[in-house]
Amino acid sequence: MASAPPGKAAPSAVSSRRAAFGALVLANVCWAGTYAIGKIALTEIPPIELNALRFIMASLLLAPVLIHYRKQIPRDRRMLFVLLQLTLLGFVLNKALEYIGLALSTASDVALLIATESIFTGLLSWTFLRERVTRSGVAALVIGLLGVYLIVERGVTPNLGNGDTTRIIGDLLVVLSLLLEAAYTVRGKTTLTTLPPLLFIALTITGSLFFWVPAGVVAVVRDGLPHVTAGGWLAAFYLAAITTVLSYWLWFRGLSVVDASAAAPILFIQPLLGAALAILILHDALTLATVAGAVCIIASLLLVLRSGRRGTLTALDESVP
C-alpha cells in the first residue's frame, strides 16, 4: 500500500482530524446554550434537585449504551477507582459548584468565565500529560487570569462589600468548578485509551447517581417538590440530552484524536455564543470591565492556539492511522 508523501497526512488521517475538530466545535456550540437555559431551569428547580433530575434523565438515555458495552465495563479495582475519581470531578463536585454558582451569578458572567476551563486544561495538560510548555502558553495563562479577574470584579479595584458579593461568590464557585472540569478532561483523556468514549461518559454519568439521587431525595424532603412548568421540563431535558449526553460524547470523541491542549482553544466558542444568548434571551447587561475581561480571555486562547498549532498538526499527522 502506498504511503502519503513526506510531510503530508494520509487522506484518512486528514479526514479523521477534521471530523474530530468538527465534533469538538459542535460540542461547544451545544454547551453555549447551557448557561441561559440553565438559568431558566434554576428559576423553577433548585441546583441540587436540577442536577439530580438532569443526571437521572441522562442515565436513562445512556442505559442502552451500558447494555451494548456491558462486556467492556471494567471490573478491576484500579479502573473502578479511576472512574470514581472522574465521576466526582466531572459530574458531582464540578456540577454542584457550577449550578450553585450559576444560581448566584448571571448567565453572561458564567458563559464568559467558562473559558477559564481552557486555561486550566492547558496548564494541567502541561503538568500531567507532559505536553509542551511555551512562552506564549505562559503569557496566555497570565492574560487569561487577568480576564477572569476583570469579569469577576467588574473593574480594576476589588468590588467586595459594594453590594455585589453574591454575584462574586457565584463567579468564584464557577471558576473553581471549571478547574475540576479541566482535571476531568485531562484525566479522562488518559482513560480513553482503554474505554470507548460513549461508554466512558455513560459510566461516569450513571455513577454520579450514587450521589445525586440521595442528595435530591434529601432536598425534596426538606423543601418539597418544586413546581415545574413545561418550559422547566424542556430546559432540564436540554441539559440532560444535549449538554450532558451528546456534548460530552462529541467532546471525548474529538479528544480521542486531538491533544487536550490543542482542543482547549475551541472552548472559546462557549463564552462568545453563550454570552450572546444570555444577552438575547435573559437581557443580561455587560459592563466595560466584563467586555475587557472577555477580550483578555479570548486573546489568551488565541495565543495558546498560535503557539501550539504547528506542533499539534504534525503530531496528529503522525499519530492518526
The tally of helices reads 14
Element-level helix/strand string: HHHHHHHHHHHHHH
* Spans of at least 5 consecutive residues with low confidence: 1-8, 309-321
Write down the overall mean pLDDT.
80
N-to-C span:
13 Å
What structural class is derived from the secondary structure elements?
Answer: mainly alpha
The beta-strand count equals 0
What percent of residues are in strands?
under 5%
Q: Which word captures the global form?
A: globular
Task: State Rg.
Answer: 20 Å
Main sheet summary: none
How many structurally independent domains? Answer: 1
Q: Helix content range of the residues, please?
A: over 70%
Helix/strand layout:
Elements: H1 11-32, H2 34-42, H3 47-68, H4 77-104, H5 107-113, H6 116-128, H7 135-153, H8 165-191, H9 197-207, H10 209-223, H11 230-255, H12 260-263, H13 269-282, H14 288-319
